[in-house]
Amino acid sequence: MSAQIEKAAALLRQGELVAFPTETVYGLGADAANPAAVAKIFAAKGRPSDHPLIVHIPGVEHLDRWARKIPETAFALAKAFWPGPLTLILKRQPDVSDAVTGGQDTVGLRVPGHPLALELLKAFGGGVAAPSANRFGHVSPTAAQHVHDELGNAVSMVLDGGPCRVGIESTIVDLTGPQSRILRPGMISAVDLGRVLGRLPGTGDDAVPRAPGSLESHYAPRTPLALLQPDVVIFAVREALAANRRIGVIAPMACPLSDERIVWREIAGDHVGFAHDIYALLRELDSLDCMRIVVQTPPQSDNWRAINDRLRRAVAGIEK
To answer: What is the pLDDT of residues 117-146, one digit of tens each?
Structure first.
């Protein structure tokens, strides 16, 4: 075990906050069994206290420490997708803190698919509550520097594991009812889950239980953001230039215009590459004093569902 991991685990035991990488985004971690430590997460993020957290655990053998009445579907999904970007909503054990569950009788659990995160969890030996390591409602961090930039001294330590491989948050599946339901889409799709479950999961449109990242507005930069169809993107750019204002653009093509007031970032045209890069690009453009950020609307197919979900909530976060 590295000295860095030993230090991070010790800080967690002392009730301090440690940011760490997962394959999805960087998490802001605290000892999930310590309500005072968990309270520091809410203070650092400015997060509503009734908003539940995901508990990251070292392996499936830790499930019954946090959950009860665990259905066989949970073990089947864990076998198929853990470690990985899948969170399971299960009935909580009675001693799980309300600070973690938002006062609900359910708890979200996941085994992250990042070697540094797994090393930390095994060294700590317990569950780590960890939402994304950013101010509540803002763009999630996918690099250690993003955490430093946004949270600064509110975090005792930031473990640097490089850029996150996936780039958007985990799929959340509720297994507490008669049918499994997706409460938050992610890169593990309904079709992926259906192959294991034997039927496609439903959706959690009634928002019970509440799940992280399911508010109508979320994931938002501070700069005004718009989703535009390809033929409208260039019109928006010309409009900004006419007003002599800088504009940021994220699109899966090269910039057809040459003007220093256009901050154009070409992004991958496939959903995997797009998910990997979108948060980092939004953060970059958000720091460059643009009048507006424009993102070319992605395709509407099932593979893009999670990305469209995040972008829709980001735009709502700007407009609220």
So the answer is: 999 999 999 999 999 999 988 999 999 999
Give the pLDDT confidence of 197-256 residue by residue, as tens digits. 999 999 876 656 777 766 666 778 999 999 999 989 999 999 999 999 999 999 999 999
From the number of C-beta atoms within 10 Å of its C-beta (0-12, 13-18, 19+), residue 163 rates as middle
pTM exceeds cut of 0.90: yes
Residue 43 CA neighbour count, 13 Å, CB half: 12
- pLDDT for 171 equals 98
Contact 257, 272 (CB under 8 A): no
Cβ-proximal residues to 213 (8 Å cutoff; 6+ apart), any chain: 169, 172, 184, 219, 313
Pick the closest to residue 29 from 113, 128, 107, 126 (CA basis): 128
Q: Please tell me whether the peptide bond between 252 and the residue prior to it is cis, using omega within 30 degrees of 0.
A: no
Write down the pLDDT at residue 220.
86
- Domains of the chain with CATH codes: 3-203 (3.90.870.10), 225-319 (3.40.50.11030)
- For residue range 293-320, list pLDDT tens digits in order: 999 999 999 999 999 999 999 998 655 4
C-alpha dihedral (186, 191, 192, 197), degrees to nearest 10: 120
